[in-house]
TrEMBL record:
SUPFAM superfamilies assigned: ATP synthase D chain-like
Entry similarity comment: Belongs to the ATPase d subunit family.
Keyword Mitochondrion (UniProt): yes
Top-rank taxon, per record: Eukaryota
Major subcellular site: mitochondrion
Gene Ontology terms describing biological process: proton motive force-driven ATP synthesis
Function: Mitochondrial membrane ATP synthase (F(1)F(0) ATP synthase or Complex V) produces ATP from ADP in the presence of a proton gradient across the membrane which is generated by electron transport complexes of the respiratory chain. F-type ATPases consist of two structural domains, F(1) - containing the extramembraneous catalytic core, and F(0) - containing the membrane proton channel, linked together by a central stalk and a peripheral stalk. During catalysis, ATP synthesis in the catalytic domain of F(1) is coupled via a rotary mechanism of the central stalk subunits to proton translocation.
GO cellular component: mitochondrial inner membrane; proton-transporting ATP synthase complex
Keywords of this entry: CF(0), Hydrogen ion transport, Ion transport, Membrane, Mitochondrion, Mitochondrion inner membrane, Transport
Transmembrane segments: none
Protein name: ATP synthase subunit d, mitochondrial
Amino acid sequence: MAAKRVAKSAVEWAAFFERVPPNQRDAYRAFKSKSDIFVSKVHRFPENLPQIDFAAYTTKLNNPAMIAEFEKAYKALAISYPKDKANLRAQVEAQEKEAAIATQKQIAETRKIIGDAQTMLAKIDSVPAPNVMTNEMYADYFPDQARNPWDRPTFWPHTKSYQPENDHQAIH
């Protein structure tokens, strides 16, 4: 049985190299050289088993029955592609699908964050100049950040870390 020859590499080395961080380029080069060495070793051997001239051996040797037995065994020889007994390929494909789902989820979350940031930038661009803005205008533009002493009274300095609900050492 003829082994499948790899005519073209399944890895796009140039695209792979572009994604490698500069601090890992030496490891990438070592990996690629080992891969090239392995491929060259595989290509050193012929694609098919060499043909043996059994007729020449029958004239040279005394036992033609032994040669016929060897010829029959040689022609029956079939080297099959190794089976994945541990089912690693299916595990890798399952991990690939999970990674694709996680990637799509992360892309959706990132797009949402980008949309929120663009909305905030549009809001900031519409805000009047600081020398014109009043506290009331700030409260209109940013209601979640504005001081609201009636609904949410705070103590000076009006930062989160100095408020009573965030004081973990206070006895309540």
